[in-house]
Amino acid sequence: MNGSSDGSHRRARIIALVNQKGGVGKSTTAVNLGAALAMIGRRVLVVDDDPQGNATTGFGIEKSALRASIYEVLMRNAPLEDAICKTEIDLLQIVPATINLAGAEIELVSELSRETRLRDALQSVVEQYDYVLVDSPPSLGLLTINALVAAGEAMIPVQAEFYALEGLSQLTGVVNRVREALNPRLHVSGVLVTMYDGRTRLAVEVLAELARFFPEQIFKTQIPRNVRLSEAPSYGKPVMLFDPKSRGAQAYAALAREVAELAGARV
Questions:
Q1: Dihedral sign from CA coordinates of 198, 204, 210, 214
Q2: Which residues have a Cβ under 8 Å from the Cβ of 9 and sit 6 or more positions away?
Q3: How far apart are alpha carbons 21 and 153 in whole angstroms?
Q4: CB-count burial class (<10 Å; 0-12, 13-18, 19+) for 67
Q5: pLDDT of 67-123, one tens digit each?
């Protein structure tokens, strides 16, 4: 298990949050899992690799005041260190995103080593953190490929809804191709069920179906539907600061413990 208490230098666990479907909780998980891990003493860097910049907003970062963002880092116009911002949580930092990132998919197409830009940028900081969480866009384009090439693990948030399994075979196929061609360390370390309501038969059936599809990877923790989770980003705070007693905050605290405790088994 990675930890910061003994002062040892270990390479961070780099986890890419991926799903080409939008609205499944990738940014919510990047923000709140990152916050929860930091609150149990882990050093965390969240990398916002999504042009929508929802993780950046979720930490209350003022985008117009940034001197550098992940866009400048990927285009090699700034080192990663110049783009790192502090958050309200001592052990948690973020590399923010702005709308400029929307152009990166096109601008990087003709560039050399376009799939490894994020991995290369992270090399200078991997020993400074226990976890790097990369929030990726709802697509399987070049930004998501960069996240998968940089990561050792892919975490797949999946909404507990009728179409939950739709597209997952395509996503796992992309993960497998990235592993074969660019990143032999990459594996799916966890499938996270989000927006879960155990009172509905549909949610229970979706959970059972996902467990059949990913028998070894599904997390024991499910993230519930929770209004406080939805409200927290508008205040620029993780839910653990906004309402630490809410069901959403408690679920992400449980997920953080599960991620930390299963580190040895999953890596």
A1: positive
A2: 127
A3: 19
A4: exposed
A5: 999 999 999 999 999 999 999 999 999 999 999 999 998 999 888 889 999 999 999
Q: What is the side-by-side order of every strand in the sheet holding 13-17?
A: 85-86, 92-95, 44-48, 131-135, 13-17, 153-159, 187-194
Give the containing element (helix H, strand E) for 193.
Answer: strand 187-194
Average pLDDT of the residues in 119-137: 96
Each domain of the chain, given as residue ranges in start order, spans 13-266
Residues 81 and 72: their CA atoms lie apart, in Å, by 11
Mean pLDDT lowest among 5-9, 49-53, 80-84, 210-214: 5-9
Q: What are 109's two structure tokens?
A: 């197409």
Q: Which residue has the tokens 């990166």?
A: 104
Class of 13-266 in CATH: alpha beta
Pairing between β-strand 131-135 and β-strand 153-159 as defined by DSSP bridges: unpaired
- Going from the C-alpha of 149 to that of each of 48, 60, 128, 152, 169, the distances in angstroms are 15, 28, 20, 8, 19
